[in-house]
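Inputs:
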Amino acid sequence: MFGSLYLPIAGHAVNVFSLLGLGGGVGFLSGMFGVGGGFLMTPLLIMTGIPPVVAAASDSNQIVAATTSGSYAHYRMGNVDLKLALVLLAGAVVGGTLGVEVIKMLRQLGEADLIIRITYVVMLAIMGFYMLGESIYSMKRASFAGAQAAGSVAPSGFARFTAALPFQMHFEKSGITHSPILPLAIGGLVGLLGAVMGLGGGFIMVPMMLYILRVPMHVAIGTNLVQEVFMCSNVTFLQSMTNHTVDLVLAIVLLIGSAVGAQFGARFTRRFKGDQLKILLACIILLVMVNMLLSLLLAPHLLLDLKGIR
Amino acid sequence: MTATRRRNRALSLISALSLLLVAPWPHSVRADLHLIPDSIPIGAFFSGMLVRVMGEIPAGSNAVVEVIGKRIEEQVLRKGRHYDIWMNEGQIDIENSPSLYLALSTDPSGFSRWGADAQYGYTALKKRASFTGDTAGMTRSEIFHEFVDLKEHENLYGLLPGSLEVSPSAGNRMSVGGTFRIPSRVTPGDYRVRLSVVRQGRKLRSETAHLVVHMVGLPAFLATLARRHGALYGLLAIAIAIIFGFLVGVLFKRRSHAH
């Protein structure tokens, strides 16, 4: 069949053009919003018939390419805060290790699948609705109040709390001053949720950087991409070592599409304002959430599913 | 009757039965079977392959061709409703079911999907299969029917009644021919292709040929590397991804400078 490519680890053939298109589309969004794209790519790969374990592992491999390409583009544009990325990464490594233990415990209790799925839907819903609401409110406020000075708004209780934390340090690129405890905790939480949900966690990290750390949108995107390069490299290595589920052929085809798509996505970002980008990302997050919710509520076509790979 | 005579009679009877079993079948009941190709290489662009099966059977008979994979233990996850949410509820181990099963016949009504005839088709497979694990009240039939639906969805099981063509041949015999597709999801290994001669619902004779499916070239190299040298494979995968991502970044930088 024309355009067929055999995947040696997944154990079946796929159409190379559909994979390139899939990689390109998700890579575009990755470059545009600074997320690895795992929350989109993995379900899409499963829909094309790739076994879930191979889809998740190979996806983390291709994310390494997309985020390297996207990081490079954002670094050139001055959107990467390396200091902040390192602190977030440190937290994410600790959180990820904890998450692996949490998932082991949940599996023993027999409730892992239910909790993972519900966590996924709840997290996506919170992020999506909050981001959408906040961006619309922010755009309306800007249009009514014009260029009202931000300094005239009284600091919130949360802002006073974060300012009271010890070891305050300045993150120059982001233009923020925080105790490293805060980004470490955020990195830890995202790492934990990422491990439990089997994702890089970019779609949780970017909103948290925006709303808790108050990092500007473009810097949040670039910085998250850098920390995802390391996170996903670690996952790829561990999956190859322990489960042998990384399909290099699948990953290479996807990464060709996604690395090129990420470049176009990063350029496209400049055409939008921060709030417009937030609204677009919120809509995509909510679409994935609705799709997941429907898959949980509607009766499946087949009542049995093959476990693992053949 | 003395003990010696009884023993001699018993020995004679056993000898006669043995002769019946090992003696060649009469020419009229013999079946011939050939496969083209009889070896399937899984290369980088493999997307499944058509296999032509040809044989000869006695005139007035029907033929059934079965393509049978190794009997393996498959682990499946059972979906169920929990707090109104569909999720994987338990694992069922299915033993003694072939990894691949395709059946073709000359007779369009040769076998129905869940017919009473347990010689061929899914009913025969169901008889041999066994189930353990968290079945949660599902009956044997329900589990196997769902399992067959899943395997058919993956193109690994299929029934093709009436798909074998028949044409007259020399010496009161008929040529039988047909084509089946080995799907791309096939696992490398040895597969049996069995041609059975059937008359009035009774199997008279069967002939078996072997079909070998094996990985070659890049897929064989990568599959071996992934399984035997996981760490090296992982490092290679990361290196390729980082180098490729970086090269694309540099390429796009040059292009943007060029504009």
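Chain B touches chain A through 63 residues (CB under 8 Å). Flag for discussion at group meeting.
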